[in-house]
Specification:
Elements: H1 3-15, H2 26-29, H3 31-40, H4 45-62, E1 65-68, E2 71-74, E3 77-80, E4 112-116, E5 125-128, E6 134-136, E7 146-150, E8 158-160, E9 166-169, E10 175-177, E11 187-189
Antiparallel strand pairs: 1-2, 2-3, 3-5, 4-5, 4-7, 6-11, 7-10, 8-9, 8-11
Helix pairs in contact: 3-4
Protein name: Secreted protein
Organism: Streptomyces spectabilis
Signal peptide: 1-23
Length: 191
Amino acid sequence: MNLRKSLTLVTVSIALGGGVALAAPAAQAGQPAFQGQATDSGLSASEATELQSTIDALLAKEGGKQTAANEISYADGRLLVPLPGEKYVRELNGSRAAGTADTARHTCTYKRLCGYSGRNYTGQEREWYQCNVLYKKPSAWRSGGSWYNNQTQGRQGSWYDYNKRFIKHTPPAPYPAPRGNWAPVGYVKAC
């Protein structure tokens, strides 16, 4: 068959509703699996869609790679997003009850410096762990918030402004800070 005939057949096939399967972009390839993970964790279909929309917006703005229904991974750590209707982030484990407690708690992994978008460890959680590297804080965190220094004992994190000028060190780990202010902070150094 010659090239002209092949192109004509493909054009006719597409016009009649048949067609050529196009590969989905890599960012969307895993979404059905994450949708299933969300519903397996007790979210309704609309809540799973709402969570995916939040993740998609964060990926578009901050980059990274989605690695779970409520998680974006970066070279320097991860960002966890609370499930719809919940205040605190959590690992998805097939049960919704684990994330609904109304007590202030941190979920910061050991050997990490963690920031939270809301006070008392609520909202999104961003983990940082590599020393001597400046990391941009999530751009939507403009005020309030909290943080937890859960690094090895004695390690200190550092805050820097938007021009990468040093502001101050955190107290030595382990150290909780249920009330903070992200407004002056542009960058974070874990240690």
